[in-house]
Amino acid sequence: MSGTLDCIVVGYNDTPFAKLLERAKLVRDHSGGYLHLKANSVAFRGERIKYSDLINTCISASTGNESHYHVGRLPSLGACYLASFLRKRGLRAEVVNFFNYDKGRLAQLLTESPRSVAITTTFYFELDPIREIVDFVRHYNSETRIIVGGPYVFNVCSDYPPAIQDTLFKQAGADIYVFDSQGELTLSRICNQLRTPKPALDTIPNLVCASDSGAFCRTGREIENNDMDENAVDWSTFDRDFMRPAVQTRTARSCAFKCAFCRYPVLAGSLDLTSLDVIEKELDYLHSNGVTHLLFIDDTFNIPAGRFKEICRLLIRKKYDFKWFSYFRCANADDEAFALMAEAGCTGVFLGIESGDQAILKGMNKAATVERYKYGLRQLNARGIARYASFIIGFPGETKESARNTMAFIQETQPTFYCLESYFHDKKVPIADKSDVYDIKGQAYSWKHKTMDWIQAAELVNEGYRTITSSVILPLYSFDLWSLGYFMSQGFAIEQLTAFLKLASKMLVRGLDEATPAYADLEEQILSVFRAPQPRRASSHVLC
Question: For the whole model, what pTM was predicted?
Answer without folding.
Answer: 0.95
